[in-house]
Each structure stands twice: as structure tokens, then as C-alpha cells.
Design goal:
Length: about 350
């Protein structure tokens, strides 16, 4: 019987198509006024990792951007955010009802923040209603707890935003659904083999915007399959973490054309230690179709989601119901007041 999670992973191409068709490119400049000097991107759990990826992409587009977990913004003060009036808060939440994210928006405004943008999957949510401008992947609703098509669809929205700011050709977004179909088909056997391997610890490597993507791959594997996993910037892996590499570990490296020489060199350094190595990117174990760099992050996600799914099934776990987790974190009144 197909799980909700498997269905949600495999239906991403069509969901992306609907998400792209619903986008209004003219809405993106509305979020960024001439008075904005900095962007803070925030979220919780998976959407924090999407925030990390988004902030890195926005920096590559020439903006001053940082990612901050919403729980950290719950402590924000005028002293810690002196230019709040010149800052855009980009809040990302699948449900649009996550307590920490809503509290972060409230406190951002309390210290003088004036501009809030939101990315969500629910147009009727509190977050979307409170934002000055919002983008919603309504087709990406999920039954399962772990985010898959919701995360990737919101990533597509982030990519469209970045492309707009860089003056890119948004028609390239139309390439993504067919590219996703291809990646899901060709990467699944490789991911199944890796999931069924003897590896006990998994390392995900990704640089630039793909560090957030690697972190999301790490989180999916933990959530769905209770497998020890960590994420690192590729060259940082040499500075200590590679001491954990042996024949009971696996390394999944997200290789980009821009950083290929250095990222492949890292793989060459750790290969003699015996880990199972999978590379995702141009001319690698899992090849990506040719799309602009700003559009790639969503494609890199797909094999990572399949790996987590296949590992969960291999271990006899239900990927729809990760242990101890719920789809939305909502704090009670006492927690919010503390």
C-alpha cells in the first residue's frame, strides 16, 4: 500500500506545475522597497532550513540577508535589531500557524519592523493574513507529518523570487516539473540501494544555498527513518567531521558546477576511508537536467526525500508518522508568555 509520504513525493512535479502557474512575478518586487537594507528569513524545523537556503540565494542576488530560527526572533529587541524599520522579515511556514513564527512576526513589529512577507501552503492561515505580501503553494497540502512536497514547492517560490531579483528569465521555471519527473525516476534505484546498504551514519554535504538543502536531507532521514545523519558545508567536512568516515558510513554530496572542483576534491579525500559515496549534480551518480543555477535547489531535494522514504520502509517504519512528532508546533499560553 502506498504511503501518504510516497504519494506526496511522487506528485511533486504536478504540484510544482500548479504552484508555478499560480505565481504572479510582479508580486515579488512589492516585498522589497527602496527603504529595505536587510532581509531576515525565518522558519522552524524544515522551514528554518529553507530559510537558510533562501538567505544564501538572496545574498547571491546581491542582498544583505540572514537566516534566523523563529525561536531566536522570539527574543528580539530594539537593541538586537536597531534597523528594524529598514528590514524585511520573510517568514516561511507550511501551515502558517506555527506559534514561534507568529510570535516572531509579532515581536518584529513590536521593535519597529514594518514589512513582513510570508511563504506558506495555506492562504487562510494567520501568517498569510498578517503579512503585507504573501505567496502560497496551495496545491502542496500534505497528510504526512514530514514535509516533502510542501517544502519543495515553497523552495520553487523562493527560486522564483531570487530569479526576479536577479533579472532572470522566469520561463525557466516551466522546465522544473519535467525535470522533477526525470529525477524521481532515475534516482530512485540509486537511493533504494543506498537506503538498503550497511551504512549506519549518513553525511550530507552542500555549499551555498545547498547547505540548507543538505540540512533538510539530514532532517528527513532522521524524521522518517530514525537514522543518524549530519549536514556540513563540503570543505568544512575536512575540519574534523571526516574522522567519522568508515565503511559503516555514507556521504551524499550535492555538487554544483560553480563549486565542483573543490567539492569533488573533498570526495577524493574521504574516499580512501571507505564510506559509501553518492554525488548528486552534473555528470555525477545522479545527474540533474540543465536548468539555471537559481532553479536547482528544488531538484536536489528529490533524491534526498526518496532516500529517507526508502530507508524508513527498509527499517519497517511508517514514514507518515515519525516518532514523537506532529505536523504543527503550537505553544500553549504559558509557553508563549514565558
Amino acid at each position: 500500500m502506498t504511503s501518504h509520504t510516497e504519494h506526496e513525493i511522487l506528485t511533486q512535479p504536478e504540484v510544482w506545475r500548479q504552484t508555478i502557474d499560480a505565481l504572479d512575478p510582479l508580486s515579488f518586487p512589492k516585498a522589497f522597497g527602496d527603504d529595505i537594507t536587510e532581509v531576515i528569513v525565518t522558519g522552524c524545523g524544515s522551514t528554518h532550513y529553507l530559510a537558510v537556503s533562501a538567505a544564501a540565494s538572496l545574498r547571491e542576488a546581491g542582498l544583505q540577508a540572514i537566516a534566523v530560527p523563529a525561536s531566536e526572533l522570539m527574543e528580539v529587541t530594539q537593541r538586537s535589531l536597531p534597523r528594524a524599520a529598514e528590514t524585511l522579515l520573510l517568514a516561511i511556514s507550511r501551515s502558517g500557524t506555527t506559534s514561534e513564527t507568529l510570535m516572531a512576526v509579532e515581536l518584529f513589529r513590536a521593535v519597529g519592523g514594518r514589512r513582513v512577507a510570508a511563504i506558506s501552503c495555506y492562504s487562510s492561515s494567520t501568517l498569510v493574513a498578517d503579512a503585507h505580501v504573501s505567496w502560497v503553494a496551495e496545491a502542496a497540502h500534505e497528510e504526512s507529518v514530514a514535509q516533502t512536497r510542501s517544502f519543495s514547492s515553497m523552495q520553487v517560490i523562493v527560486s522564483a523570487m531570487v530569479a526576479t531579483l536577479m533579472g532572470g528569465d522566469l520561463s525557466a521555471l516551466q522546465l522544473l516539473p519535467d525535470a522533477a519527473d526525470h529525477i524521481l525516476e532515475v534516482s530512485r534505484p540509486e537511493m533504494r540501494a543506498l537506503a538498503h546498504s550497511a551504512a549506519e551514519t549518513f553525511f550530507f554535504l552542500g555549499g551555498g544555498p545547498l547547505y540548507g538543502t543538505a540540512s533538510e536531507g539530514m532532517l528527513k532521514l532522521k524524521e522518517m527513518s530514525l537514522t543518524a545523519s549530519e549536514a556540513y558545508h563540503p570543505m568544512e567536512f575536512r575540519h574534523g567531521p571526516m574522522s567519522m568516515c568508515d565503511d559503516r558510513s555514507a556521504v551524499v554530496s550535492l555538487v554544483t558546477p560553480e563549486r565542483e572542483r573543490h567539492e569533488v576534491a573533498v570526495i577524493g579525500d574521504i574516499a580512501p576511508f571507505g564510506p559509501r559515496i553518492i554525488t548528486i549534480g552534473a555528470r555525477r551518480d545522479v545527474d540533474l537536467p540543465q536548468v539555471p543555477g537559481w532553479a536547482r535547489p528544488a531538484l536536489y531535494l528529490l533524491p534526498l526525500q526518496l532516500l529517507a522514504l526508502e530507508r524508513a520502509v527498509h527499517k519497517g517504519l511508517d514514514p507518515d508518522k515519525p516518532r514523537h512528532l506532529t505536523a504543527v508546533i503550537q505553544l500553549d499560553a504559558a509557553d508563549q508568555a514565558s
